[in-house]
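We emphasize that the prediction below concerns an isolated chain of 326 residues; any contacts that depend on oligomerization or on bound cofactors are therefore not represented. The input was used exactly as deposited, without trimming of termini.
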Amino acid sequence: MAKVLGMGNALVDIIARIENDDILDSLGLPKGSMTLVDLDTSNFIHAETAGMSKARASGGSAANTIHGLAHLGIDTGFVGSVGNDDMGKFFKKDLKVNKITPILFRTMTETGKAMALISKDSERTFATYLGAAVNLRAEDITHDIFEGYDYFYVEGYLVQDREMFEKALRLASQAGLKICLDLASFNVVAEYADFFRTIISDYVNILFANEEEIKAFTGKSPEEGAKEVKELCDLVVIKLGAEGSFCVCEEGMIRVGVRPSKPIDTTGAGDLFAAGFIYGHLKGLSPETCGKMGSILAGRVIEVIGAKMDESHWENLRREIYSMEA
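Result of the prediction step, given as a token string:
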């Protein structure tokens, strides 16, 4: 059975539903974006949302995908950096409870946290204090981390430390792992487009992006942009939200619709889509079936608050996903 290692910003998600979008304007947060904030701003946002009910979960894009794979029965591990604090302990415990091998480096900086503000239309806006998450260093990344794993799933947000990011991809590639990269938020992609182009060409097998990210990367429509990037890697998977998804592969362009659902929060939709797609891929299934598996997971996670689902949801999802392997 293939094993999947994830690496990303180790964040604790704090999720609040907002009554209207005025608070986003007052806080200077573009709706639907991921904005990096400092500790003071993060604490201010927490204070401004003090009256709202909040949920807490271990998060970060790659960690969410790894959680999804673990719930589908895949052996997984996660590499990240946390603080020596209660949030860091919470993050590690949450990995262990979900049968994910933690490979966590501890620092004296506070554990990163992502404040997710959920609008009435289910769109989510993140104010992210990276904290200890960005203390993962190139010297932390060694060959032995990758031993025994078959796939390496990494989030584009790590691009802020290019040396560490490139080293992780290089060592994973040398160890023979299939490398899956999920592009970061469109504003991050635009800033680092040239670097992304180089690492995708050199290391990446499967690229995941949404339509804003592929446009920011190529300046083209999702379809034309995906075809262009396909020249650099084996498989390009584009998530189109309510319009479903498509992938560009050897067989051409394959479109997959969405699973009918009643969305209340889109947090984690792209991350869980990637979990379903990768699960199908490591089982050797067709790109179309992989896409359908992704849609099933994405369609279900948007019906709950946050990127995590309880075991009753997962029991039904496993039954549905496993039946597609026959």
